[in-house]
Amino acid sequence: MKIRLIALTLLSALALSACGSSKQRAVVVDRTEAAKPSSPVSSVMPKKANPAASDWRPNVHVVKKGDTMYSIAFNYGLDYRELAELNGIENPSKINIGQEIRLFPEGKGALAKAGEESPAGGEPVTKPVAAEILVKTSPKAIKLPYSEQALAQLEAMPDWSKSAQVAPVSVAKPAVEAKPETPPVVAVPAATLPKSEAAPVAEDSGSGDELVWLAPTSGKVIGEYSESANRKGVDIAGKAGQPVYASAAGKVVYSGSGLRGYGKLIIIKHNKTYISAYAHNDKILVKERQQVAKGDKIAEMGNSDSEQVKLHFEIRKFGKPIDPSKLLPPIKP
Question: Which CDD domains does UniProt cross-reference here (predicted)?
Fold first, then answer.
């Protein structure tokens, strides 16, 4: 009843105003605002932690004056033989200034771009999520010229303010790839299983943080690590021929005198993170690509390319020198 009185009052007011004009005006009844389409629903995946966040190494090194394949590998904590093979270099002693040396296989470098799921950029990933979007299909605004017939038509229309038809629109879920079924496990009698052979020492076994280090030799520490003074390791004085030991298990990736200032040098790669270096030896007892265990005797102390008998010892993380005293046990005099 109230709606009818309001409609009649509105129509009367419009009729009076129309008398003062030569033009005929229409009655406009807008019961609700036009429905706005709902925005798609999205799910923002959280950033994934980058496992190589502390690895500063680029994917490519540009050769500078004074560089050698040995020094490049040493400075990035890599094996110079593998580096040469990766770049198709037959003679590691022949590289040119300006030459680009790829340090890692494609997609495996620390600064390589991550796939869409992860980031090494850490950008959030937006994925569609199944949802129902409600879209209002009625009522709509109605415009009719004033007349008794129009008034009767308006009164006959249902009251949309009480009930609105809502048509749900469903968003299809993304297809999920079916996982292959796991084949059944068949039991095999123990007597038929072959005996397992002892596995060689793995170069990349364990993470670098799990290594337990051993002092490479004994003696007086005559030079300590100093980043500001560009001292990349510790110097331990001793006697000529004194044993030098591997501080941790790994693979010998360099053995020789090709790096200036180090004399007869041994470099051991322990895993993907750490390498250790033993310089100024008198005699080298291991060969390149040889696997060594922690505590193995690898050299005898000397004074090659040095003014006194000593061992210069370094630990490098991703090729960057770090303070050995933070990892080694106390060195006995």
Answer: LysM, M23_peptidase
The DSSP code sequence of 71-136 is HHHHHHT--HHHHHHHTT-S-TT---TT-EEE-S-TT-STTSPP-TTS-SS----EEE---EEEEE
- For residue 220, give its domain range: 211-326
Tally Cβ neighbours within 10 Å of residue 13.
Answer: 10
Regarding whether 219 and 319 lie in a shared domain, the answer is: yes
Is it the case that residue 159 has pLDDT exceeding 90? no
Q: Each residue of 56-83: pLDDT tens digit?
A: 899 999 999 999 999 999 999 999 999 9
298 and 217 co-located in one domain: yes
Query: With 0-12 CB in 10 A as exposed, 13-18 as middle and 19+ as buried, what is 54?
Result: exposed
pTM higher than 0.70, yes or no? no
Please check whether residues 222 and 295 belong to one and the same domain: yes
Q: What is the pLDDT of residues 233-292, one digit of tens each?
A: 999 999 999 999 999 999 999 999 999 999 999 999 999 999 999 999 999 999 999 999
CA dist 167 → 11, 120, 133, 136, 141 (Å): 33, 42, 9, 7, 18
